[in-house]
Write a structure and sequence with these properties.
- By secondary structure, this protein is α+β, with helices and mostly antiparallel strands.
- It folds into 2 domains: 253 residues, 3-Layer(aba) Sandwich (Aminopeptidase), CATH 3.40.630; 224 residues, Alpha-Beta Plaits (2-Layer Sandwich), CATH 3.30.70.360.
- The protein has a 6-stranded mixed sheet, with helices on both faces. A 5-stranded antiparallel sheet has the order 20-21-22-9-23.
- Strand 26 and strand 27 form a beta hairpin.
- The protein is elongated, with a radius of gyration of 26 Å.
- The N terminus is likely disordered.
Length: 496
């Protein structure tokens, strides 16, 4: 394995040469000024028109090649920033230090940090296009945005009115041979229940913790189609069952860690008498039998457990030994856990096996003042996100709790009449002798933000093979970059 720091790539592929060059400039999200200025100067030196806004977004315009002057303008799009993660023990300052490469066979890695090929490979490809007179193309508008990895604020802030192109090649995908044609938008939604506390009398019994655990979890976009168990929803199912069989007081509900992750664990602190404990144990035994049957494929390890006390890992959780929820607060929370929309809500009719709309009840937290149930809803259609939000708001009104939403990220609906996608398909089959795979992703891409600004935009997303993104194990295939660079030139040539 080669672990030299400088000039590690010795081939003649301009994309990889420029990728190594730009990797010397720190470009973590929110720290893009230096890389933006570098690319702007690079383009100006090659007689390209450059527009740079105060969020460091770039629009670079390169004139059409001879014979392509009448062809429609094409936008080539990527983002300037990268995720900055490193291994424990790795000495690296992402605000000053260059990314140090190492090559292992066909793969380029960084030395203990993220590589930044997401999305540095798009920036390097843009540089190669700008600098290569042999690349034949229509008029190009190269759009490079900022802060994509944290908030997409660059794309949201962008003034798109200078852009003439209405065909866009987004270069932020990570699988060669697959072109993406749709993505989901998303929104955070919050149900908030103010807690009415009441004193716990001796008749309430002793504290117990219900644990829901052993679930597989996963990404709420990519993995929602697998219909894996959601610990928060299963906790609501357990509590709803107990309401019909035993008297208990509720003092705390908590579950999940990230709103965009399917929660693997959840717990509730309840108070039971000795008689109530026997009933609860019997019901939980029955629920475990049912869940093992229902989730024998997706979540083999699912378990509901009743544990005496409320100390978890030796630390007292956010419960109050002298207080419990009022009966109204208890029932409101249990009803919300049961009724908040969750999982796959609709499938796409144009693309097989694609989730169109979903929701994930990702995080439930109890504080001294309130219980917050946080969901993340996704859809490629804004109208269906609005429908999910309306359902959630109606539920909140019925339950008598608070509701709000924020951080809306627009989706990218499939376009059946795309003129760009057939060019990709034709050129891929011509070069590689096989069909290009057409896919959509139930997660977010900047295409959604940009299409909301330019509703008539015809877009696809493509890129070379990139693995373990956002981790220090991130690596990029050299041969895939080389093939993708040749294929991209075919596409640009075919857009005459």
């Amino acid at each position: 394995m080669n672990d030299k720091t400088a000039n590690i790539y010795t081939g003649d592929n301009k994309v990889l040469q420029y990728f190594e060059e730009l990797s010397k400039i720190p470009r973590g999200s929110g720290n893009e000024k230096a890389i933006s200025d570098f690319i702007a100067d690079f383009a100006r030196q090659r007689n390209c028109e450059v527009l740079q806004d105060d969020r460091h977004n770039l629009i670079i315009r390169k004139p059409a090649s001879t014979g392509y002057e009448a062809a429609p303008t094409v936008i080539f799009q990527g983002h300037l920033d990268m995720v900055c993660e490193k291994n424990k023990g790795t000495v690296h300052d992402f605000t000053r230090d260059p990314i140090r490469f190492k090559i292992d066979g066909d793969m380029i890695y960084a030395q203990g940090t993220t590589l930044g090929a997401d999305n540095g490979i798009a920036v390097a490809t843009a540089m190669a296009i700008i600098d290569s007179p042999e690349v034949v193309h229509p008029e190009l508008e190269i759009l490079l945005t900022t802060e994509e990895e944290t908030s997409a604020e660059g794309a949201f802030y962008l003034d798109a009115t200078p852009l003439k192109g209405r065909m866009m090649i987004n270069f932020d995908s990570d699988r060669e041979g697959i072109v993406f044609v749709s993505c989901a938008g998303g929104v955070n939604a919050y149900h908030t229940v103010p807690i009415v506390w009441q004193n716990r009398g001796p008749e309430a019994g002793e504290p117990y913790t219900i644990h829901v655990q052993g679930l597989t979890g996963g990404h709420s976009g990519d993995d929602i189609i697998h219909e894996r168990g959601n610990a928060n929803k299963l906790l609501g199912r357990v509590l709803t069952d107990l309401v019909g069989h035993a008297d208990f007081a509720l003092a705390s509900v908590n579950g999940g860690m990230k709103v965009n992750a399917i929660p693997r664990e959840a717990e509730a602190v309840i108070y039971l008498t000795s008689e109530g404990k026997e009933v609860a144990e019997s019901r939980i035994d029955e629920i475990n039998r049912i869940l093992r049957d229902e989730y024998q494929v997706s979540d083999k390890g699912v378990t509901v457990m009743l544990q005496a006390g409320y100390n978890m890992d030796g630390e007292e959780g956010p419960v109050y030994s002298d207080k419990v929820f009022s009966e109204e607060t208890k029932l409101t929370v249990i009803r919300l856990l049961t009724l908040i929309p969750n999982g796959v809500l609709s499938m796409d009719k144009a693309i097989p096996n694609l989730v169109r709309t979903s929701s994930n009840l990702g995080v439930v937290t109890t504080s001294e003042e309130e219980i917050v149930l946080r969901s993340y809803a996704r859809s490629s259609l804004r109208s269906q996100i609005d429908d999910v939000l309306q359902t959630m708001e109606t539920l909140a009104q019925t339950a008598g709790c608070g509701f709000r939403y924020d951080s809306y990220f627009p989706g990218w609906p499939y376009r059946a009449d795309s003129k760009l996608r057939p060019v990709f398909e034709k050129m891929y089959e011509r070069r590689f002798g096989k069909s290009l795979e057409i896919k959509a992703v139930h997660a977010g891409l900047e295409c959604g933000v940009l299409i909301e600004k330019m509703p008539d935009l015809d877009a696809v997303s493509y890129g070379p093979n990139l693995f373990d993104i956002h981790t220090p194990q991130e690596h990029l295939s050299i041969s895939s970059v080389e093939r993708t660079w040749e294929f991209l030139q075919d596409v640009l040539r075919g857009l005459k």
